[in-house]
Amino acid sequence: MRFIFKTSYDQDIRLARHSGYVFWYGLLLAALSVAPFVLPVYWSSLITMTMIYGIVGLGLMLLSGFTGLFSIGHAAFMGVGAYMQGVLTAQGWPFPFALAASMVSSAAVGAVVGLPALRVRGLYLAIATLAFAFIVQEVIVRWESVTGGNRGMAVGMINLFGWKTGSPIVFYYICFALTVLTTLGVLNLLRSPTGRAFVAIRDSEVSAQSMGVTLAYYKTLSFAVSASLAGLGGALSAHMLRFITPDQFGIVQSIDLLLIVMIGGLGSIHGAFFGALFLILTPQVIALSKDYLPPAIGQTVGLQSVLYGLVLIAFVLFEPTGIYGRWVKIRTWFELAPLYRKNLLKRQRRFQKTERLT
Amino acid sequence: MSTPPLLSVENLSVRFGGITAVSNISFDVRRREVFTLIGPNGAGKTTVLNIISRIYQQTAGNINFDGYCITGMKPDAVAGLGIARTFQNIELFEHATVLQNLLIGRHTRRQGNFWQHLFFTPSVREAERAAREKVEEVIEFLDLQHYRDLVIAGLPYGIRKVVELARALCIEPRLLLLDEPSSGLNPEETNDLAFWIDDIREELGIAILMVEHDMSLVSRVSDRVLAMNYGEFVALGSPDDVKVHPGVIEAYLGKGNDISLLRRHLP
Lengths: 358, 267
Ligand SMILES: Nc1ncnc2c1ncn2[C@@H]1O[C@H](COP(=O)(O)OP(=O)(O)OP(=O)(O)O)[C@@H](O)[C@H]1O
Ligand SMILES: [Mg+2]
Prior knowledge:
The complex is a heterodimer of chains A (358) and B (267). Chain A has 358 residues and is an all-alpha fold. Chain A is 69% helix and 3% strand. Chain A has a single domain (32-356), classed as ABC transporter involved in vitamin B12 uptake, BtuC (Orthogonal Bundle). Chain A has 16 helices and 4 strands. In chain A, a hairpin with a 2-residue loop joins strand 2 and strand 3. The longest helix of chain A is centred in the middle third of the chain and has 27 residues, at 215-241. The radius of gyration of chain A is 21 Å and the shape is globular. With 267 residues, chain B is of the alpha/beta class. Chain B has a domain at 7-82 and 173-265: Rossmann fold (3-Layer(aba) Sandwich), CATH 3.40.50. Chain B has 10 helices and 10 strands. Chain B has helices at 45-52, 75-81, 98-104, 114-119, 122-141, 157-170, 187-202, 215-221, 239-243, 246-253, and strands spanning 7-16, 19-29, 34-38, 60-65, 68-69, 83-85, 175-179, 207-211, 224-229, 232-237. In chain B, the strands form 2 sheets. A 6-stranded mixed beta sheet of chain B has the order 6-7-8-3-9-10, with helices on both faces. In chain B, helix 7 links the parallel strand 7 and strand 8 (207-211). In chain B, helix 5 crosses helix 6 (157-170). The relative contact order of chain B is 0.17. The complex binds adenosine-5'-triphosphate and magnesium ion. The site of adenosine-5'-triphosphate (ATP) has 12 residues of chain B, from strand 2 and helix 1.
């Protein structure tokens, strides 16, 4: 284990707590910078997809993992962002402006969806978000003149002030840059009073209020920020997919998003990205392994969903702290090699706190 | 008295459905005073604190704090005015470290808006350093240095109580509401608590309104004591006077001298 001698308050404020951070994250960024030139196109497109879902996961992590508010309709915000991006791109808006507008409109919708959060919590809130997601989906389906309804809508190429590009490499770097920026933004929030207010609300609303945290403001803010990141991810995925339909942003997608944060590990930024990676890679791994299974099993219809479901159940049962929790254990094992004890990192499972007054 | 009291509670009543938890209670807390509420279980003491910190809504009555009528305010607004509190069943942020808990105590003194926090501007960084300095003062004051970076969920009960007190002090309040600060503490910890209460009043100039069952602690630190029973006023005065007040003895012992009611309050 690494012991860090603290000599100034800035050490607790800085993002990179020690030189190890700088080295490993530097290495990761360097690897991601060269990836599109080294990896086959298909693999770099998987990384792009992971980054997009990572951004959306980051948003949902802020809401559910750090503010303790659960949304099971989060795909609706992706939908708002994706359609906004599609429509504005068709009207010739430059990419950065369209992207900003998509984020702002998702944030606005998010703030509205957040209103029930001021009154209800837990399961009731989750159901309210689900209901709202249905409404958003219905609006997209019915508003045919703009969205093309169930027939879907083609999304134009990225327009960088007149220069139009459909290059996957350019798109990769755009997503890469946005992933880094949004992650830094969220990390900044979390080390400032705003982020601490979120965490306070998650852990105890009563005492958060008594510490001067205005619940209505911070819950709405968390919803808005979370929705704007989902909107950003939605807008990017619109360009990635090139063709969007309302059912891409339905309940199944919402549950996938929830899985990202649950499997990744609630309350951890790493978790959002581990979860996204898991979501993107698992179907690939299952598809690959099909060839090695006996045909009777490998060719069964629905194998993919069943295996996927089993992996999920296994996670929820055996690794409640998510991939991030497992990662911390592995890392600690390496650092402590001969001294590692089995229950070293054991801590209470995190259940959502029930309503309780003084 | 020439200077007006810091807090004045006038004719406060609270009903929950059919139960009258607090009935027509009035009292003042003066600046730099330690004022204690006593009474048997269910007397309505916690309810009084919950009304002052605006977690519950009163049925009738009025509360003024330093010239402001606070009866229409929200809990976060009264925290902003300088009323901090602790809870009978500790309400800390369990998954955060002691340091993070205390930093939340600086929330009312935060600087910068959402956008400045998002970009972590130099002024936000400066404010974070200042907040940390203040938190370190409180850590030093309450001897919490060893626990600074530990997560609450793993701390012993007595330490959690101190952390909660520390978090309330980080607000730099003018009035501190303490709900049974000594419950669950061993005699040594209770002794420390008595010294801290004196220091909070003397050095920091903070008035304290507390609910407490340990009569020796009450006598040691309080200036005045209000006794309640079934939500009603029983007696008000110096600790020594209230202790021997016939109404108080009856409230604790009951008319039939049922000693079992007293058990929890004996040292
Ligand atoms: N939220 C509530 N809903 C209904 N009744 C309540 C509520 N809070 C308190 N009461 C009732 O009000 C009365 C006073 O409760 P309170 O918690 O203020 O007592 P207390 O003096 O703090 O007692 P203790 O010494 O046990 O802490 C009790 O009868 C209690 O059951
Ligand atoms: Mg009580």
